[in-house]
């Protein structure tokens, strides 16, 4: 005769459990763990950062959950609100990204404007060049595209 263990009542924990997968930009693979569907997005980001650090993954992200956004590619291009529950999205695959950094500058009239951080644009440019070289596109189209990209980066966002 087989012995069976009695299952715990999951209803008393406040909802169903979900197996989610969070891809971190720049990392080798996604982080997978179980969350409660009633858990807030902020708590999921915190858990993901702790798991990422515990596994010793690179690049090092830090532990400030306010510096990150969680996206769901299957739902749309907007980041999820940190006050939203993870189960309300209806998906199980997510992407964790750093919040874009912006610098405030003043123009000639004393108005403050936002400009894209030089460090961020340099990283984007470097990644684009690396990707272009890996695709082995022709040198002429590479230079032409590079010039277009540099012109677009020089535009200040107001």
From TrEMBL:
Cited InterPro entries: At4g22758-like (IPR040358), DUF7054 (IPR055482)
Pfam families according to UniProt: DUF7054
UniProt-recorded name of the protein: ADP-ribosylation factor GTPase-activating protein AGD11-like
Every DUF7054 domain range: 16-97
